[in-house]
Fold each of these.
Amino acid sequence: MGHGAEQLLDANLELLQRMIEQQRAKVLKIARQINPRITNDDIMNPFDWPEVSNNPQFSFEDGLLAGLISADAALRAQARDAGMFPAPFKDTPP
């Protein structure tokens, strides 16, 4: 792949990371509205907090976060399979 394709891939991965960070912050904010003691680590396993995991708004936003994370993983896997390695993987052999 050409240099332009790698730049586009890097830009898309950076965009996805910003979207993931923004969505993660939104999920944490919603969780803390339900239970102020929730931490970043707690939202990774919300089933320990039934009042949070059973909340429809939290579940919806958490599902969006999961989708963004899945899209990031799929894009990275496709880039790896195509021999393109974005910044975190440039030194990783195929």
Amino acid sequence: MVNYIIHLKNRMRVRYALFKKRIVKQMPQIVVFLCALFFPIMTFANPQGGSVVSGSAVITRPSTQLMQINQTSHKTIINWQSFNVSQ
């Protein structure tokens, strides 16, 4: 009976070590998920106030999370009013 208890303790110790390795390995994905969950504005931040200075392009915003830039010339320069992801 004592050997069985020792065996269970060792087995649980090994499982806990594997669990810790898995959690540490997946930590970046967990952090990104939690940031997207609690700070949705930060994860969907887009540049604001774009104006085409050179070339030809059309900037549209079909939704708050999406911005489309259709460039029709070979080279285009766009000046942005703000390009701050932290706001």
Amino acid sequence: VFLLDAPPEILQQRKQEVSLEETARQRAAYVQIVSGLKNGKVINANQPADKVAADIQKTVLNFMAERTAKRKWLKPKNSGNAC
């Protein structure tokens, strides 16, 4: 599960259906939910689209490599999941 996250002010610029305070509340709730998921990943969306896509791609490829290694009874390499 990916959450494309950005500061409330940026989100508010993109979607103005609710107040800034409500945007901040919703953002915090989503971050808390996704961060608590075993398969959840919060991606910084306040960067160029190609960097966002690269962060997602890296996360997916690291997940697939780890899953494959577990299935083959191999030790997964250090994936360095810092995005």
